[in-house]
C-alpha cells in the first residue's frame, strides 16, 4: 500500500494587502479594498520596505524543546533533533502492485475460488465465485448477504444439589487454648513414641485390645465422678462450716485462765451406716495426706465375730468415707506405709494378714496370706511396715496371739513370711510352754532392729530382729494383757504401755521398773504419744474418757480428763494424734470416730527449764526427771 | 464406677440444705436435674457462661492453672459450680439451714 501524504510548505502571513492568500483573493476580486479597522497604518516608506522571507522546511508547530528521560543518565535530556513532520491527511489505500507477492497470491486464490465454490471473503477483497471468470472485486458495491437459521428453542435446565452440611463453628484463641493444644500434641507424640517401642513386643494384639477399651467412651455419668466428689466436699463444708472454722482457727481462750488444764473441742464425727454394729479396732493417719485416716472395723468380742471393714475418711468429708473395703473377717490392726501412702497392711481376727493397694479399683487386697503361706493361727494384733529390705521389697511385721512375730515380704505376687521370733514362756523345769500371746508391738524409731512386744500375760519383751530365740530383756509390766506399747517419738529410751489392769506406765528401757505409773480407774484401751512433745501423751478408757497428760506440767495427774462420747456405755478403743494438725481421733466400740481439737494448754511445747527438781523421789525418778529436763531442753532432737 | 457416682450424686441431693442439683454438658444443655425445667434451663445457661468466663480468666493469668470450683453466695442461698472438661455440676444449697 502506498501512503499518500501531502507535504506542504508554510507561508508566513503577510500583512500587506496585495499578498493575501489564495482564498482571500477569490472573493476579494471584484470589490474595493476594505481596510480592516485594526490594520496598522504604515507610511509609504514603510510599505515599500522589503522583508526577506525564508522558506524553511521546519514545522512551526513542532515543539522545540522535547525532553526525554534518559535512563542511562537518570535525568531528563533535551532531544536535539525534533521531528518536523506534520501529517495532514492519511488514507490507507488498498492498491496492490500486480507483480507483488500478495497480488500473485490473491490471483491464485481467486482462481481457486472461481473453480471451487462459494466462499465468503473479506469485504474489500474478491467477491463470491460461481463463475469461472475472474471477477473484479467490487469494493464499493458492497452487498450484504445474510441468512437466518432456525433458532433452536431454548430450554432451561437446572440442577439443584444438596447443600453441603453446614455447622456453625466458633472458637476463641486464648493463651491457654494454645497451651492446651500444645500439651495435647506433646502427649500424642509421647504416646506414639511408646507405641513405637511397644510394637516389637509380641503381645501386640492384647495391646491393641487394651487401647481399644481405653478409647471407647465410658458411661456419661462416670466422667462426673471427680467433680461430684468436689461438690460433695463443698456441700459438706457448708453444712459443717462452723466445725471447719473451729478446726482451723478456734483456740480456747479460757486456757489462759486455767493454768494446767486443757480441753478437747469436739469436731467432726465420722460414721458409716454399714459399720454401725462394728467397733473401731484400729486407727491410722496417713503420713502423706494429712487429712486422710484409716479406720479398721471389727469386733473385740470373741463370741460376736463376723465381717469387718476397712474404711478411709478424709477430714474434708465427714459424712461418707473415701474408700470402703469390706472384709470377711474382722480387722484388728492396720498400718499405712510411711512413704507409699496407698499401701495398707491389715491384720485380721482369723489370723490372716493382707495388703491393700488404694490405687487399685478392686475391693480385694493385692496380697493375702493363706493357711499355706504361714498365716497366724490366732488373731493378729498388730502390724507395722518396715523399711524396704535389701532387695527393695516392701515388708512388714505382724504379731499375734499364737506367739509368733512374723515378717512378711512382698515379693512380686506373693507374701513370703519369715518367723522372726517366737514368744515363749519358760518355766523353771525348762519345759517350754506354749508360746505366749503377743498383743502389741512397736519398733524403735531410730534403732531399726530393736522392738518391744507386749503379751497377754502382761509382760513386755524387748527383742531384736537378729536374735530369734532370745529376748534382750523382759519387763513385768502389767497384771493383765498389754494393750499397747509405744516408743516415745523423741526420747530414745522411753516407752509407754497400757493395759486392761487400769494402768498406764512409762518406762526407760534400760531400767526394769517403770518410771511413772498412772491409774485411770478404768480399763485403758489405747495410749499414744503426741508427735509434737516428748512429754505429752493421751490415753482412752472404756468409760468413754480421754485422759491427756503432760509430764512437764503435771507428773501425777492428767491435765485433761474428758468424756467424749454421748452415751456412757460406749467404750473408747483407740486414739491417734494427727502428725500435723492439733487434733486427735478417737474410735469407739460403736463404729464412730470422733475428732477432737486440743486446746492450747495441751499443746505446750516444752520450754527451757533448768534444774527444776522435785524435793524427793527415788533415784530413778530424779534420773527420769533429768531426762525429762534434757528432753525439755532439746525436745525435737531425737538423739538427746 | 457409675454406681458409685450415682450414689455420690444421690448423697449430695439428699444432703442437708441442698435445694437442687443440675448436671450440664459441654454445650450448656442440662442432662440431669432435680429442679423444674424452666429454672434448670435458666441456671444452666447463665452459669455455663459465667463458668466459662471465670475459667478463661484463671487460665489467662496462668495457663497451667485451672478452675477447680466456683461459689456464689447470695442472700438467699449459695450456688456452687464445679467444672470439668466436659461437664458442669451445679448445686444450690442453703447453708444456714
Query: What's the total number of strands of chain A?
Result: 30
Mean pLDDT of chain B comes to 89
Which fold name corresponds to the CATH topology of the domain at 254-604 in chain A? Methylamine Dehydrogenase, Chain H
Q: Strand share of the residues of chain B?
A: 25-35%
CATH architectural label of chain B: 2-Layer Sandwich
The largest sheet of chain B, given as strand count, sense and whether it forms a barrel, is: 5 strands, antiparallel
What percentage of residues of chain A falls in helices of 4 or more residues? 10-25%
Secondary-structure-based class of chain B equals alpha+beta
Q: Which stretches of chain A are low in confidence, meaning pLDDT under 50 for 5 or more residues running? A: 1-24, 117-131, 202-218, 606-622, 632-640
CATH topology of chain B: Beta-Lactamase
Secondary-structure element series of chain B: HEEHEEE
Radius of gyration of chain B: 14 Å
- By CATH, the architecture of the domain at 254-604 in chain A is named 7 Propeller
For CATH, the homologous superfamily of the domain at 254-604 in chain A is named as YVTN repeat-like/Quinoprotein amine dehydrogenase
Main β-sheet description of chain A: 4 strands, antiparallel
What is the helix fraction of residues of chain B, given as a range?
A: 25-40%
Amino acid at each position: 500500500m502506498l501512503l499518500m501524504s501531502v507535504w506542504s510548505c508554510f507561508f508566513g502571513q503577510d500583512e500587506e494587502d496585495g499578498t493575501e492568500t489564495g482564498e482571500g483573493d477569490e472573493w476579494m476580486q471584484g470589490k474595493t479594498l476594505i481596510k480592516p479597522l485594526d490594520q496598522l497604518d504604515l507610511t509609504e516608506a514603510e510599505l515599500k520596505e522589503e522583508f526577506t522571507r525564508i522558506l524553511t522546511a521546519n514545522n512551526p508547530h513542532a515543539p522545540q524543546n522535547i525532553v526525554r528521560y534518559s535512563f542511562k543518565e537518570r535525568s531528563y535530556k533535551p532531544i536535539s533533533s525534533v521531528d518536523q513532520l506534520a501529517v495532514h491527511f492519511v488514507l490507507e489505500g488498498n492498491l496492490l502492485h500486480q507483480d507483488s507477492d500478495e497480488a500473485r497470491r490473491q490471483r491464485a486464490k481467486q482462481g481457486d475460488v472461481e473453480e471451487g465454490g462459494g466462499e465468503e471473503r473479506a469485504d474489500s477483497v474478491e467477491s463470491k465465485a460461481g463463475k469461472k471468470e475472474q471477477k473484479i472485486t467490487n469494493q464499493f458495491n458492497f452487498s450484504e448477504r445474510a441468512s437466518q437459521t432456525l433458532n433452536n428453542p431454548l430450554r432451561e435446565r437446572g440442577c439443584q444439589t444438596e447443600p453441603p452440611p453446614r455447622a456453625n463453628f466458633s472458637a476463641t484463641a486464648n493463651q491457654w487454648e494454645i497451651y492446651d493444644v500444645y500439651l495435647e500434641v506433646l502427649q500424642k507424640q509421647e504416646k506414639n513414641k511408646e507405641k513405637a517401642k511397644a510394637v516389637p513386643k509380641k503381645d501386640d494384639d492384647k495391646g491393641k485390645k487394651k487401647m481399644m477399651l481405653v478409647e471407647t467412651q465410658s458411661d456419661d455419668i462416670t466422667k462426673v465422678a471427680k467433680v461430684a466428689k468436689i461438690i460433695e466436699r463443698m456441700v459438706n463444708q457448708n453444712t459443717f462450716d462452723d466445725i471447719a472454722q473451729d478446726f482451723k482457727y478456734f483456740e480456747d481462750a479460757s486456757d489462759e485462765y486455767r493454768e494446767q488444764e486443757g480441753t478437747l473441742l469436739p469436731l467432726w464425727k465420722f460414721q458409716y451406716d454399714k459399720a454401725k454394729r462394728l467397733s473401731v479396732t484400729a486407727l491410722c493417719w496417713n503420713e502423706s495426706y494429712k487429712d486422710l485416716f484409716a479406720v479398721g472395723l471389727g469386733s473385740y468380742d470373741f463370741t460376736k465375730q463376723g465381717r469387718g471393714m476397712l474404711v478411709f475418711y478424709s477430714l474434708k468429708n465427714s459424712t461418707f468415707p473415701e474408700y470402703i473395703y469390706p472384709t470377711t473377717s474382722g480387722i484388728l490392726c492396720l498400718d499405712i506405709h510411711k512413704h507409699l501412702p496407698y499401701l495398707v497392711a491389715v491384720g485380721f481376727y482369723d489370723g490372716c494378714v493382707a495388703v491393700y493397694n488404694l490405687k487399685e479399683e478392686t475391693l480385694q487386697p493385692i496380697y493375702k496370706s493363706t493357711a499355706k503361706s504361714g498365716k497366724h493361727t490366732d488373731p493378729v494384733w498388730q502390724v507395722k511396715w518396715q523399711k524396704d529390705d535389701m532387695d527393695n521389697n516392701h515388708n512388714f511385721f505382724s504379731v499375734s496371739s499364737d506367739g509368733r512375730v512374723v515378717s512378711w515380704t512382698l515379693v512380686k505376687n506373693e507374701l513370703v513370711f519369715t518367723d522372726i521370733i517366737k514368744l515363749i514362756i519358760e518355766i523353771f523345769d525348762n519345759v517350754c510352754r506354749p508360746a505366749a500371746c503377743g498383743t502389741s508391738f512397736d519398733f524403735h524409731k531410730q534403732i531399726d532392729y530393736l522392738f518391744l512386744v507386749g503379751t497377754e500375760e502382761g509382760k513386755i519383751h524387748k527383742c531384736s530382729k537378729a536374735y530369734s530365740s532370745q529376748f534382750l530383756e523382759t519387763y513385768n509390766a502389767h497384771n493383765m494383757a498389754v494393750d499397747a506399747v509405744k516408743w516415745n517419738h523423741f526420747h530414745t529410751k522411753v516407752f509407754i504401755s497400757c493395759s486392761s489392769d487400769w494402768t498406764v506406765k512409762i518406762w526407760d528401757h534400760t531400767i526394769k521398773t517403770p518410771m511413772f505409773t498412772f491409774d485411770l480407774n478404768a480399763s485403758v484401751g489405747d495410749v499414744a504419744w503426741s508427735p509434737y512433745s516428748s512429754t505429752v501423751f493421751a490415753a482412752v478408757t472404756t468409760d468413754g474418757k480421754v485422759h491427756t497428760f503432760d509430764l512437764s506440767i503435771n507428773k501425777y495427774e492428767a491435765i485433761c480428763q474428758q468424756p467424749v462420747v454421748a452415751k456412757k456405755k460406749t467404750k473408747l478403743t483407740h486414739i491417734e494424734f494427727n502428725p500435723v494438725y492439733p487434733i486427735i481421733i478417737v474410735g469407739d466400740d460403736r463404729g464412730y470416730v470422733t475428732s477432737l481439737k486440743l486446746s492450747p494448754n495441751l499443746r505446750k511445747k516444752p520450754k527451757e527449764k533448768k534444774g527444776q527438781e522435785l524435793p524427793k523421789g527415788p533415784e530413778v525418778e530424779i534420773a527420769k526427771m533429768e531426762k525429762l529436763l534434757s528432753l525439755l531442753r532439746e525436745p525435737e532432737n531425737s538423739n538427746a | 464406677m457409675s454406681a458409685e457416682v450415682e450414689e455420690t450424686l444421690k448423697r449430695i441431693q439428699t444432703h442437708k440444705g441442698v435445694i437442687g442439683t443440675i448436671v450440664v454438658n459441654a454445650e450448656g444443655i442440662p442432662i440431669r436435674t432435680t429442679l423444674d425445667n424452666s429454672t434448670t434451663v435458666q441456671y444452666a445457661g447463665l452459669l455455663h457462661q459465667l463458668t466459662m468466663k471465670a475459667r478463661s480468666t484463671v487460665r489467662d493469668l496462668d495457663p497451667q492453672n485451672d478452675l477447680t470450683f466456683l461459689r456464689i453466695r447470695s442472700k438467699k442461698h449459695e450456688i456452687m459450680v464445679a467444672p470439668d472438661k466436659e461437664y458442669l455440676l451445679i448445686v444450690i444449697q442453703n447453708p444456714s439451714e
